[in-house]
TrEMBL record:
Membrane recorded as keyword: no
Positions of the AMP-binding enzyme C-terminal domain: 445-521
UniProt entry keywords in alphabetical sequence: ATP-binding, Luminescence, Magnesium, Metal-binding, Monooxygenase, Nucleotide-binding, Oxidoreductase, Peroxisome, Photoprotein
Catalytic activity, as annotated: firefly D-luciferin + ATP + O2 = firefly oxyluciferin + hnu + AMP + CO2 + diphosphate
Enzyme Commission number(s) of this protein: 1.13.12.7
Protein name per Swiss-Prot or TrEMBL: Luciferin 4-monooxygenase
Length: 549
């Protein structure tokens, strides 16, 4: 099919404010330039602070220590931890040495962690005290995984810690040199994503992919600078949420880190440190609009907030901006496969419901149902290519080929359009991925776990609308003959294998069969209709009860 270049939308060209170098070199050079006594990271719970000088010294010592321990370029390490001021010390140290890093959810089950780590051939794991017991359990029957280091442990603990490395290793921050790597081909992050369908796949992100994403946290976009303070409560293992940390190290911003979202802790830190910019998810915007706690705190320091990971309504954004005067809220859109933002809505935009314009180095096209190129205001599948797009999935040539076409455009599975001014709008999605509170959940993965139960014959999973969560996970199962299994028993069974955010909290419905299409694939549209029908019946029963009380 001949390509009409006039229907390809192009973002701004890369102005080259950041050198085309390894991420390790960019960060090392940036850390050296900043005021070494200035606060870089703050623990929002304990108040512990790290200066730029502290981060420089610790990362160089750890990078030196990793070499002494035998880790080399292209090895893979995993970080399994909640947010902390220590989280990015191993990430930066690994980038200095050309080591690949995979970021995993600390709430993952042992079953999930082992699966991801075996796929990645992990040589070493950095973890927090919260996740160390699960990791040590895995070590008992996994001989190849021998190296473990605690991020938040003390030197007295019975396992290797960061503090031990700092005391035992000499590292000269002025003379230290990063490992030479080709930023265009060297993998920096290996992130797990479900892509447009199927089980989680390893997304390969190069140093150059990440470099351009970091640029987008600087001039013209988030505009991070050395006078900024951001409060951060979103999980670091999500690609979009890595950006504020990089902005901190590159552009000199201060970052206040919270391990998890706790309403009063979140609000009090915004007030205490006078945060002016943040990246949050729509659920937090909803909280800041509806929570009775919000008026008790002075949040007027906030000037710019970007929201991501799920759709957000124009009405909600308007209410937020009325409540917190002077703060603009704008949406952005991206994927794990794009190393972050593909589009960002500028603060000057009048289109509150738009996810913005294309970011630096990104091209886009919209395809109709027959694969034809569409123009402005025509709805179709959104496809992108550019400097920040992944080169593919690890050890999965078939999935890579299915996602990236011959013109190097990545097919997102999301449905949307752009207007005459180049603003993009996401209106729906054709992919099956369920978005629960900003998390992406593969229904196939949940179905696979449900089918591990010997009393389940078939299973199907869909997302159902929910105001607070975006979507709730709802499961349908066909029981084996004579099975007396209850919904609670199957739910409890799945909780042994799945993280809390992957559990079918939208209910488990027992049915006689799972609807399928002519190709034998689960018909998720029919499953959603079944849920709606069951929900309407339940409402009718409740109305009858209430009328007759």
């Amino acid at each position: 099919m001949e390509t009409n270049v006039n229907l390809i939308v192009k973002g701004p060209k890369d102005p080259g404010h950041l050198p085309h170098a390894s991420l390790g070199k960019i960060i090392l050079d940036s850390l050296r330039k900043h005021d070494q006594h200035k606060t870089c990271l703050v623990d929002g719970v304990t108040g512990v602070e790290l200066s730029f000088g502290d981060v420089l010294e610790k990362t160089v010592k750890l990078a030196t220590g990793l070499k002494l321990m035998g880790l080399k370029k292209n090895d893979t390490v995993a970080i399994v931890s909640e947010n902390s001021v220590n989280y990015f010390i191993p990430l930066i140290a690994c980038y200095y040495n050309g080591i690949i890093v995979t970021l995993l959810n600390p709430e993952s089950t042992e079953y999930e962690l082992k699966k991801y780590m075996m796929k990645s051939d992990v040589k070493m794991i950095f973890c927090s005290k919260m996740s160390v017991s699960k990791i040590m359990n895995l070590q008992k029957d996994w001989d190849s995984m021998k190296k473990l280091m605690l991020l938040d442990g003390s030197i007295e603990d019975n396992v290797m810690t960061l503090e031990m490395i700092y005391k035992l290793v000499d590292g000269d921050a002025e003379k230290f040199e990063t490992e030479p790597v080709d930023p265009h081909t060297q993998t920096g992050l290996l992130m797990y994503s479900s892509g447009t369908s199927g089980l989680p796949k390893g997304v390969l992100l190069t140093h150059e992919n990440l470099r351009i994403t970091i640029f987008k946290s600087g001039p013209g976009y988030l505009d991070a600078c050395d006078s900024d303070t951001m409060v951060y409560t979103l999980p670091c293992f999500h690609i979009v949420h890595v950006v504020p940390f990089f902005a901190c190290f590159i552009y000199g911003s201060k970052l206040v880190v919270l391990p998890k979202f706790k309403p009063e802790q979140f609000l009090s830190n915004i007030e205490k440190y006078r945060a002016n910019k943040m990246i949050i998810v729509p659920a937090l915007v909803l909280f800041m609009v509806k929570s009775p706690l919000v008026p008790k705190y002075n949040l007027q320091s906030l000037k710019l907030i970007y929201t991501c990971s799920a759709p957000i309504t124009q009405d909600l954004l308007s209410i937020f901006e009325k409540n917190i005067v002077g703060c603009r809220v704008r949406s952005m859109y991206g994927l794990t496969e794009s190393a972050g933002a593909l589009t960002m809505n500028p603060a000057s935009s009048n289109y509150l419901d738009s996810v913005g314009k294309l970011t630096v180095g990104v091209d886009a096209k919209v395809l109709g149902v027959d694969g034809q190129l569409l123009g402005p205001d025509q709805v179709g599948e959104l496809c992108f290519k550019g400097t920040n797009m992944t080169r593919g999935y690890a050890n999965n040539e078939q999935a890579t080929k299915e996602a990236i076409d011959d013109d190097e455009f990545f097919h997102t599975g999301d449905v949307g359009y752009y207007n005459q001014e180049g603003y993009f709008f996401v209106v729906d999605r054709i992919k099956d991925i369920i978005k629960f509170k900003g998390y992406q959940v593969s229904p196939t993965e949940v179905e696979t776990v449900l089918l591990l139960n010997p009393e389940v014959r078939e299973a199907g999973v869909v997302g159902i609308p929910d105001e607070r969560a975006g979507e709730m996970i709802s499961a349908f199962a066909v029981k084996m003959p004579k099975s007396q299994m209850t919904e609670k028993e199957l739910f409890d069974f799945s909780s042994k294998f799945l993280s809390p955010y992957k559990l079918p909290k939208g209910g488990i419905n027992f049915v006689d069969e799972i609807p399928k299409n002519a190709m034998g694939k689960i018909d998720r549209k029919k499953l959603k209709n079944l849920w709606h029908e069951a929900n309407e019946i339940q409402k009718t029963k409740m109305d009858f009860v209430l009328r007759n009380i």
